[in-house]
What we know:
Elements: E1 4-9, E2 13-15, E3 30-31, E4 43-50, H1 54-65, E5 70-73, E6 90-91, H2 96-100, H3 107-117, H4 124-143, E7 150-152, E8 162-164, H5 171-185, E9 189-192, E10 195-201, E11 207-213, E12 219-229, H6 238-244, H7 262-269, E13 281-283, E14 286-287, E15 292-293, H8 297-300, E16 304-306, H9 320-328, E17 335-340, H10 341-346, H11 351-355, E18 359-362, H12 365-371
Parallel strand pairs: 3-9, 4-5, 4-12, 5-9
Antiparallel strand pairs: 1-17, 1-18, 2-13, 6-8, 7-8, 10-11, 11-12, 14-15, 16-17
Bound molecules: flavin-adenine dinucleotide.
Flavin-adenine dinucleotide is lined by residues 15-16, 19-20, 50-56, 73-76, 81-83, 85-90, 171, 195-196, 230-232, 254-255, 258-259, 262-263, 293.
Amino acid sequence: MKKWMSLMMAAFLAVPVLSGCGSSTTPGATEGKATTEAAPQDENTDIVVIGAGGAGLSAAVEATNAGAKVIVLEKMPMVGGNTTRATGGLNAAGTEAQKKKGIEDSQELFYKDTMKGGYDKNNPELVKILTTQAKDSVVWLESMGADLSDVGRAAGASVNRIHRPTGGAAVGSNVVSTLKNQVKEKNVDVRVKNKAVEIIKDQEGKVTGVKAENKDGKAYTINAKAVILATGGFSANQEMVISYKPELKGFATTNHPGALGEGIRLGESVGANLVDMAEIQTHPTVVPEKGVMVTEAVRGNGAILINKDGKRFINELLTRDVVSKGILDQKDGVAYLFFDDGLRKGLKAVEEYFNMQLVTEADSVEELAGRSV
Ligand SMILES: Cc1cc2nc3c(=O)[nH]c(=O)nc-3n(C[C@H](O)[C@H](O)[C@H](O)COP(=O)(O)OP(=O)(O)OC[C@H]3O[C@@H](n4cnc5c(N)ncnc54)[C@H](O)[C@@H]3O)c2cc1C
């Protein structure tokens, strides 16, 4: 028998648009080398990477491949950052996976969609890099064992373009475990619970290294030829969010708890200019009390949004800002994502929402309507 399901969505939350966990024994992540007895010694390396999310781990893998000695500092007890939380998929145009499915896409269309989604405020040069090179990222990740063979639709895209693991499983954990395996294989020195607290410059203003705190809170210095700042976003820092966009006061976040923006301050301290800080994107389908974001792949695979009167009120695949506003304009600022078990079979990522008991299910639409809160 067909089953019908609904998921209640309320006001939304901040997700960084562009930026780029468990224990100290996380594969590919090694504890800081300092001991509790003595003050840690200064060290020398070629490159320090600050932050072990997708960007930092990718940089570490490539720098190691190019022959550099690399130290990665990660302040949290595990690697992955927000990248682990990414669920929907990785946008890329002109990939083999798209071709196999007969999807006609181009880098030009990807560029157009991206600029349109950003109301042309985007930096065209960066969007060009994203839209022309994302395809190579897919090839690169797949060459290391990532599974990006399934292609789905995301809001704001003209064609199916988000790449994700077989059966529509979550993308971030797949990408992070691929990168973790790589750093482990290459013996990259990845130090969790080690936080960068200062970027050091010499008298000429050249960056020469990093001051860090190890897992015991002891300070040490790493002298390096280059420092790569890959510290991600700041949406878990409510104060900082409000300072740039006051209207987001009270919004919950789906970011990982380490997304506090310290890296942005580190950059500023050595003279970096900040741009577009108020361009904080909100996501339409979020369960704010739980800090859970429901991937837009659910809408991409066919779920519709209905309001408390059971009425569909918007094209679910419009851009996030438009759909977010659409939901907030409904009674009590909430809506339900409504889908059947056909969607569930084709999109493994939704299992997580069942596991978290966010979904109400029933054997008929009438029964479901009676049960939904
Ligand atoms: C719920 C959710 C779903 C998402 N879904 C998608 C999606 O489907 N597709 C998509 O393309 N994007 C998605 N995104 C966005 C995407 O996850 C991010 O843009 C991307 O992961 C950013 O990667 P990053 O490496 O720059 O940052 P992160 O992955 O956040 O890594 C930064 C790391 O730096 C560490 N760090 C910070 N400061 C310091 C310091 N001082 N010292 C040492 N370490 C430090 C942090 O702890 C963190 O581990 C999603 C985001 C969220 C929150």
